[in-house]
Design goal:
The chain has four helices and 29 strands. With 411 residues, the chain is mainly β. Strands 8, 9, 10, 11 and 12 form a five-stranded antiparallel β-sheet that branches. Helix 1 packs across helix 3.
Length: 411
């Protein structure tokens, strides 16, 4: 729970933030005619991050507060899954106006988990309109669809075989859904009808680059033209062209820039921000920004940018894609990066905030103000609010999650 003292500190912080950003934007507007260098040698500064007073992610910090009007009857929710081996369940938490979480029930997923962390990003995802949630059942080789009701509750609609073994990540774009099967090193596509029923697409089951690639995440590019998979063991990024009928072409396998590519999210300009766990080597972590051209080959913008932490794994970006937050599982903290207009990645703070033990997944709330990490070691969710220029301010945590809980999704 967030104490009264913390609430007062938070309110004072927000007041200071609002004043600071008005001053910063005003100051930068005076220099609007000055250009920011597009080279890798550009020095990261508050002026650069404010983008001459036109950075909408910065403005969100000053304008978001307790009076923010939210969707779904002024309520937001976070979903995660228990991954229980004797029955997987989707857990729901209501996001209160001060960012704290309140447990709000659970629903059976229609399958089993593994009872241990999956080491993946995207174990459950919401569609773009936040009307449907999809979740993997890694212990029973299936995936389930849920209708998201107006009060945030979930109704299980359909469970289908994943087309392989040990599904760990799922991606959705329109009426297409693809699942990553880590155990069988393949991906499988489905169409989803208006009732949430999933039907396997002929020609959509494709192998990854090899066997035992230890793939952690699958996602569509924002335009839906490509399916992307990271491969930790082979240091590759796999891309698959989506055909008109929803099936995919054979994979294109590109060496990553940075070792052990793990989680990823798409920032401004559709640049893909990938964490590089570097085999968990102490203090050797990094992240890379890529752009995927028409040929499907990811091109690194400015190399692997070190964060000097251990095992950076999960990635989330702010609403307007200017900042990326990365959990460092072995360092028990979160790093922040700035994404420049040309897609280059710059480290803001290697240790932007401490987390619980073993931080896994991370999400930015829909109001673009609160940030949450799932902590596998302490079975908790850490709560933060964003501050100016890629900062995070801790607001406590929600504890008591089941061991093996995995994945985060929020509406």
């Amino acid at each position: 729970m967030i104490t009264k003292t913390k609430k007062m500190k938070k309110q004072l912080l927000k007041t200071a933030i609002g004043a600071a950003i008005v001053f910063s934007i005003s100051s930068c507007q005076k220099n609007a005619g000055e250009n920011i260098s597009t080279g890798d040698s550009a020095v990261l500064s508050e002026k650069m991050m404010s983008e001459n007073g036109a950075n909408p992610d910065e403005a969100s910090v000053a304008t978001t507060g307790d009076a923010d009007v939210l969707s779904r009857g002024n309520k937001h929710f976070i979903y995660t899954e228990s991954n229980g081996s004797n029955g997987n369940r989707i857990l729901k938490f209501e996001i209160k106006n001060n960012g704290s979480l309140e447990a709000d029930g659970s629903v059976a997923s229609g399958g089993n988990g593994t009872g241990a962390g999956l080491g993946s990003q995207g174990a459950l995802v919401l569609d773009k309109n936040e009307d449907w949630l999809y979740a993997v059942n890694a212990g029973s080789n299936s995936v389930s669809s849920f209708k998201v009701n107006n009060n945030g509750s979930l109704s299980l609609q359909h469970t289908v075989a994943s087309g392989g073994t040990t599904p760990v990540s799922v991606a959705v774009h329109g009426n297409l859904m693809y699942v990553l099967n880590r155990g069988s090193d393949n991906i499988q596509g489905f169409t989803v009808n208006n009732n949430g029923a999933m039907t396997a697409i002929a020609g959509s089951s494709k192998p990854l680059s090899s066997t035992m690639v230890d793939a952690p995440q699958i996602s569509f590019t924002p335009d839906g033209d490509w399916v992307v998979v990271t491969e930790k063991a082979t240091n590759k990024i796999s891309t698959f062209k989506v055909k008109n009928n929803g099936s995919i072409q054979n994979g294109i396998f590109t060496n990553s820039v940075g070792a052990t590519p793990f989680g990823f999210a798409f920032g401004r300009g559709n640049h893909m921000i990938v964490s590089n766990a570097v085999g968990g080597a102490a203090g050797q972590g990094s992240a890379t920004s890529y752009i995927t051209g028409n040929n499907g080959v990811p091109h690194a913008i400015n190399g692997a940018k070190a964060n000097y932490q251990s095992a950076p794994c999960w990635v989330a970006v702010t609403k307007y894609g200017r900042y990326a937050f990365i959990t460092n599982t072995a360092s028990n903290n979160v790093s922040s990066y700035y994404v420049a207009p040309w897609g280059a990645l710059y480290l803001v703070d290697g240790n932007a905030a401490n987390s619980g033990m073993g931080p896994l997944d991370i999400v930015v709330a829909e109001n673009n103000f609160y940030v949450y990490t799932l902590n596998g070691g302490s079975h908790s969710i850490s709560i933060y609010n964003r501050t100016l220029f890629g900062g995070l301010h801790s607001l406590g945590s929600e504890s008591g999650l089941p061991a093996g809980t995995t994945g985060l999704a929020t509406n």
